[in-house]
Amino acid sequence: MQTEISVIIPVYKAEKHIRRCVDSVLTQTFNDFELILVNDGSPDRSGMICDELAEKDSRIKVIHKENRGSNSARRNGFLYSTGKYLVFLDSDDTLAEEALSILYNNITQGYDIVKGCVVKIDDQNKIISTEQYLFPEGTIECKEDIIIKIFNEDIAPYLCGAIYKRDLFTVEIFNKSIEANISFAEDWLTNLLIADKIQKILCIKDIVYNYYVNNASITLSRVVSLDYFKRIDKILDKEGFFNKTFLKEFIEARTCFLYIRNLFIPEFSFNFQNYKKAKELLKNKTVHALTKQKIDKKFLLFFNILPLYIAYTRTYCLLFLILRQHCKRRKILN
Questions:
Q1: 3-state DSSP call for residue 330?
Q2: How far is 309 from 271, CA to CA, in rounded Å?
């Protein structure tokens, strides 16, 4: 029997938070849903807790699988699900009150995706901030605009905090990131890969999702290399995104941003070739303007004075390493 909404939750090392997460779904006023918990080979008690919760509520289904990452877990949840619409939720976060009702009532008005707002909450349960994007509210119907706004992250790039029509997704959509071992920015990539099927997106200001910030991970435990982003680019190129002329300058601005941001990561040395490539890209006024939208202005200070810029980036990296990372090097994703 098909339900209206399938809520899919990848579960990994979530024993401290999974009950809170599940409870936020079970207490929704909207009742026509199934909750699919995908235990992604978690080494803690998460799987056992999932089974205990399923015994108490027939709407909960549990899948146990080997660890392959969140998109692999979502793929399994998708295969097992029956809902007309999909909602993705991370196991350490929660749905806001009335989230399913708000999202469902909007998407049934003829939209393919409805994206709500996300609030960040600290470990004291205090709201830190509400997300802000360049396109915070309204409808997008033009196919080119949809692709541009997803690519440029003018709308939220993640899968959570939204509701999707089921038929936007296929197993192959998930497989592309899984096979390329993409474990960072996979949500952004997945949203792009379904973009050609999207006719209408609605962005609303209603808060539908609570993102809990882990203070221990404010200083990231990993950094992403340019080689990693090149793997993502190979997928996008194969899917024809690099042939879309309306995306050309947005792609160049993203590339420029990545080159410059890489110069401020302590784990990487100053790369003169990337600096030169970024400088060349910035000669295009549109690319320059788009890059300035994406990047913190401090990363462009002294950019045109190479000796000073080198000294500036190296000093920044040293101070960041000492003050934010406490002299600990992070894992590099290649």
A1: coil
A2: 12
Give backbone dihedrals phi and psi of 245, rounded to 5 degrees, phi first. Answer: -60, -35
| Six-digit token string for 64 | 């146990």
**CA count, 13 A, side-chain hemisphere, 146:** 22
Amino acid of residue 73? A
Go through the domains of the chain in sequence order and give each one's CATH number.
Answer: 5-217 (3.90.550.10), 222-333 (no CATH)
Which residues partner with 140 through β-bridges? 201
Query: Using 50, 70 and 90 to split pLDDT, how confident is the model at 107?
Result: very high
For residue 41, give both structure tokens. 């080979």
- With contact defined as beta carbons under 8 Å apart, do 1 and 31 qualify? no
Burial classification of residue 68, based on how many CB atoms lie within 10 Å of its CB (0-12 exposed, 13-18 middle, 19 or more buried): middle
DSSP bridge pairs for 86: 6, 164
pTM of the predicted model as reported, rounded to 2 decimal places: 0.93
Q: Show the beta-strand stretches assigned E in 14-55.
A: 33-40
**What is the spatial distance between Cα 52 and Cα 59, in angstroms, rounded to a whole number?**
13
Burial, 283: exposed, middle or buried (Cβ in 10 Å; 0-12, 13-18, 19+)?
exposed
- DSSP-assigned states of every residue in 95-135: EPTTHHHHHHHHHTTT-SEEEEEEEEE-TTS-EEEE---SS
Query: How far is residue 262's CA from residue 273's CA, in Å, rounded to a whole number?
Result: 12
CB-count exposure of residue 26 (10 Å: 0-12, 13-18, 19+): middle
Is residue 43 pLDDT above 90, yes or no?
A: yes
| Residue of 137, 139, 90 whose CA lies nearest to 117 | 137
Tally: H helices and E strands in the chain: 12, 12
Query: In the predicted model, is pLDDT for residue 219 greater than 60?
Result: no
- Pair 35, 106: CB distance under 8 Å: no
Question: Measured on CA atoms in the order 36, 42, 45, 48, is the torsion positive or negative?
Answer: positive
Q: Which residue is it, tokens 């600096």? A: 275
Distance CA 334, CA 325 (A): 20
User: Which pLDDT value is given to residue 218?
Assistant: 41
Q: Among 121-130, 240-249, 276-285, where is mean pLDDT lowest?
A: 121-130
d(CA 312, CA 308): 6
Using alpha carbons, select from 122, 190, 207 the residue that is nearest to residue 151.
190
